[in-house]
Fold:
Amino acid sequence: MIDTEALSCQELVELVTDYLEGALEERDLRAFEAHLANCDGCTEYLEQMRTTIRVVGTLTPNDLTQAAETVLLKAFRDWKRSS
Amino acid sequence: MTLPDDELVAALKEGDEQAFAAVVREWHAGLTRVARIFTPTRAVADEVVQETWLRVLGALDRFEGRSSLKTWVFRILVNTAKTRAQREGRSIPFSALHDPARVPEAAVDPERFLPDDHPHHPGGWESPPRELPEDRVIAGETREVIERAIEALPASQRAVISLRDVEGWSSDEVRNALDLSEVNQRVLLHRARARVRQVLEDYLAPEST
Ligand SMILES: [Zn+2]
Structure:
């Protein structure tokens, strides 16, 4: 049985980031956790959001190209000389 | 890792090239991602980042340490990018960045929930999330799919998810760099993550037809 009185599944999915960021108020937090305890769909949704964050975290940040770095270091030397 | 701000600023003023190279490398990805909010292409973003560093050097003597150096550099970046957009007659997606709530967007397609007037379970899952095969989640091809999904996001969402989840910045760092309220930062992050999750589900566990 799913307790839909306090919070529906459709409402819960919009609160997942607030939940993960620790930004839910006490009352909402209780409703959120009570709902999760009884709802497989929302538990899976939360799990998938965590998975998403984990996988996005494995992407490589954009690297600076050698050419751009050379230009900037030259600019730095010029700046140093002129100041 | 970068030095504490006061040491870093002192090193830069003394002309310490290694310190400069280190900070340029460390912040490069973040700067590029933020620049992309205001620029049409990656190439223009790269130019904006370069111009930013030149401006930073030019203004370093006036840095007073009232904000962190990082915040200060990102402010200069945003100004540089905006000035350039104006010069080139491009409009800037200010409103999208500062008031995401004006563009309502559901984390999950409303069609996947039962209607509000459903007798037993209003707003409950009609089509719950399909389980993701764990072994494929971390595969290289999956990462490419996610990379493309992030690239396709609206610029402000792309910047926030990139800085928070790819670069691992704190929410305060992101808010300061982008001049966002706490709530707006979370709204943008939520939409971005929700969108990427949906792409992941569609890719790894397609709907059976
Ligand atoms: Zn639910």
